[in-house]
Design brief:
single chain, 498 residues, alpha/beta, Aldehyde Dehydrogenase, Chain A, domain 2, 2 domains, seven-stranded mixed sheet, binds nicotinamide-adenine-dinucleotide, oxidoreductase, Aldehyde_DH_dom, Aldehyde dehydrogenase family protein, Ald_DH_N
């Protein structure tokens, strides 16, 4: 692990950052209770802002505001709705650097360059006026049959902290493009980028009440969304444990939902893999955002013939990862909070106790730079057996497990042998292996010689098995926020005899 050199820590004032308020019906308001939650910079625990600590009463107010906004938003022609989203995208691009800094500060990550949220918004806006129904055959020539795609009305979403900006866009944009009005709760650890995005949406001209952002804890404000009987559809991104609670609450109201949950993504490395490409990509795949990415490739399933070489090269590469506070020239920042810090260190202990070998990392980096932050070293475990907890459970930290196998069948069995199925990667130069593995891997996204299944524009994103169901970001994302109505139509007058 490399350590960033200068010693200052820094919290930057960003004009888009809001303090103590949330957005309900176009107004920036406190929680009804008057209580707040501190949002801190995870690199040094400095206070960044306070957010309202809302509960079911605030969610009720947001639902009423959304209900009021809904008829006009639904009836606005689809091209005008699209244009407002395009304008929002322009503002997001204009404020790209501020948004990036805000997200870096609250999540504690180094810069990823200009955010892609503007392009995702444009991709979604382009679908708004392409929501089409079907023309249906009828039993009589005097009758017409067709389907309408209609919005649900007031819909809800709950998002996690690891990429708050993109998560906000992925839920809000398709829902409102379809004509719904949304109540969304960002994560209490990283709500500032979502609030800033909502501010830009208002500035773009998206009417008050179309987007309502209610902040607070999951058990107080979050749970009130799926429990609300007048919220007609829900999108949830987060952990499987919370996803189950959200689904249970939705089931009581018979509310449809999609779930974007966790992963334990395998990276399968064949003997003919180009390790010059694979090793840096796999290292980035587990250290990007400090491993706090649902798609993180956290298991390396490697053919025994190149096992030793791969361990050696991965260890060297992981030791090059520069760790430090977000504002420096580093590759990896801290974990998000104390709970996550304990959890990741706990898994490292579990791995050691189970007999896996720590090749590099395995602890907390030492030095003045790290005193107050939730830092952990990039950690490589060798000789992990597939049934160990570190190979089965999502750690959500920079911890990579290497599992050697003897052939393709065993690789498939190990790769598919968890409850998750979000992303899987294959490293090979053989086309036949690539084709077979693309079919055999149980995952919503498969990347061949590509770490996160990324690099595709408009690829639907979502999970198999316990990684969830439903897809975001694809060409159907707006349709998914609509319901289908079949219309059969006959004129009121009796048809003449033919
Ligand atoms: P989390 O489940 O703890 O929290 C997610 C959100 O749910 C937060 O806003 C939280 O406040 C809220 N919440 C908590 N308890 C709730 C309850 N009882 N009712 C309603 N809402 C509640 O997850 P997290 O720790 O914020 O995020 C990490 C998880 O998210 C990981 O499992 C990761 O894999 C997953 N994730 C998945 C994707 C994806 O697209 N599949 C993307 C990002 C993150």
């Amino acid at each position: 692990m490399a350590i960033a050199s200068d010693h200052q820590t820094q919290t930057v004032d960003i004009p888009l950052a809001l303090d103590g308020v949330q957005l309900i019906g176009g107004e920036w308001v406190a929680a009804r209770s008057g209580q707040t939650i501190d949002v801190i910079n995870p690199a040094n625990r400095e206070l960044l802002a306070r957010i309202p600590r809302s509960d079911a009463e605030d969610v009720e107010l947001a639902v009423r505001a959304a209900e009021q906004a809904f008829p006009a938003w639904r009836d606005l022609d689809a091209t005008s709705r699209a244009n407002l989203l395009f304008r929002w995208a322009d503002l997001v691009d204009q404020h790209g650097s501020d948004l990036d800094q805000l997200e870096r500060q609250e999540v504690g990550r180094p810069s990823w360059g200009p955010p892609r949220m503007g392009s995702q918004l444009r991709f979604t806006a382009g679908q708004a006026d392409k929501v089409q129904g079907l023309s249906l055959p009828t039993h009589s020539p005097d009758q017409l049959g067709f389907t309408l795609r209609e919005p649900y009305g007031v819909v809800g979403a709950i998002i996690p902290w690891n990429a708050p900006g993109p998560m906000f866009v992925n839920e809000v944009a398709p829902a409102i493009a379809a004509g719904n009005c949304m109540v969304i709760k960002p994560a209490e650890d990283a709500p500032l980028t979502p609030l800033a995005l909502a501010k830009l949406a208002l500035e773009a001209g998206i009417p008050p009440g179309v987007i309502n952002v209610v902040t607070g804890y999951g058990a107080e404000a979050g749970s009130a969304i799926p429990e609300h009987p007048r919220i007609r559809r829900v999108g949830f991104t987060g952990s499987p444990a919370t996803g189950r609670l959200v689904m249970e609450a939705c089931s009581r109201n018979l509310t449809p939902l999609h779930l974007e949950l966790g992963g334990k993504s395998p990276q399968v490395v064949f003997p003919d893999a180009d390790l010059d490409v694979a090793v840096p990509a796999m290292t980035a795949g587990i250290t990007l955002n400090t491993g706090q990415i649902c798609a993180a490739g956290s298991r390396v399933v490697v053919h025994r013939s190149i096992h030793a070489e791969l361990v050696d090269r991965l260890a060297k590469q992981m030791q090059q990862v520069k760790v430090g506070p977000w504002h420096r020239d580093v590759n990896m920042g801290p974990l998000i909070n104390a709970k996550q810090h304990e959890r990741v260190l706990g898994y490292i202990e579990l791995g050691r106790d189970a007999g896996a070998e720590v090749v590099t990392g395995g602890g907390v980096p030492q030095g003045a730079d790290f005193g107050n932050g939730f830092f952990v070293e990039p950690t490589l475990f060798n000789n992990v057996s597939p049934d160990m907890r570190i190979a089965q459970e999502e750690i959500f930290g920079p911890v990579l497990s290497i599992i050697p196998v003897d052939d393709e069948d065993e690789a498939v069995e190990v790769a598919n042998g968890t409850d998750y199925g979000l992303v899987a990667s294959v490293w090979t130069q053989d086309l036949g292996t690539a084709v077979r593995m693309s079919r055999r891997l149980q995952a919503g996204q498969v990347g061949v010689n590509s770490p996160l299944g990324a690099g595709v524009i408009g690829g639907p994103f979502g999970g198999y098995k316990n990684s969830g169901f439903g897809r975001t970001m694809g060409a159907d994302s707006v349709l998914d926020w609509t319901q289908v109505k079949t219309v059969s139509m006959r004129g009121a007058t009796v048809p003449p005899q033919r």
